[in-house]
Amino acid sequence: MKKLTIIFAAFLLLASFKPEGLKVGDKAADFKLKNIDGKMVGLSDYKDSKGVILVFTCNHCPFAKKYEDRVIALDKKYKSLGFPVVAVNPNDVSEVPEDSYDNMQKRAKEKGFGFPYLVDETQATARTYGATRTPHVYVLQNVKGTYTVKYIGAIDDNSDDAKAVKEKYVESAVDALLAGKEVSTNSTKAIGCTIKWKKA
Hints:
Blueprint: H1 2-16, E1 33-35, E2 40-41, E3 51-56, H2 62-78, E4 85-89, H3 101-111, E5 117-119, H4 124-129, E6 133-134, E7 136-143, E8 146-153, H5 169-178, E9 193-194
Parallel strand pairs: 3-4, 4-5
Antiparallel strand pairs: 1-2, 1-5, 3-7, 6-9, 7-8
């Protein structure tokens, strides 16, 4: 009988468990993280923007590398339209030294990043948003200073070949928001390396 009680209690606990992270339609959480130039950057710095393309990414992941040029292109296309890119590196550098702050600075310089590349040292921002992979994208819309999550997932449908892409999920989401429409595909599966979490 005691075993049954324990099993039932465990079942109730699992049933009531809510996975971490934001969902489409949720209010986006603000943050203040250190940029590669040493300055602190957060959503509140973009109060005059129509939104933000928030990309959790890193230096070492092959998928993140494949998407770097596409992230740069997104920023170039949408920054002037009010949707700049903000990139965040959430990885534990003790597990992947290639993702260190110094290497972030080098990578950004090599690639010519025109957007902030922030370090999430505590990993609190990645956990709050529910990011699990690099890259993992959140399109946030700003309405009167309140950011709302409008899209979560992959950048497009082909990580291997940019020329073979058929569905540009992030572009479609931002284009819809700029046109005052609802995002038709507001969630996809993020494809990339798993975030390297700090061990408790």
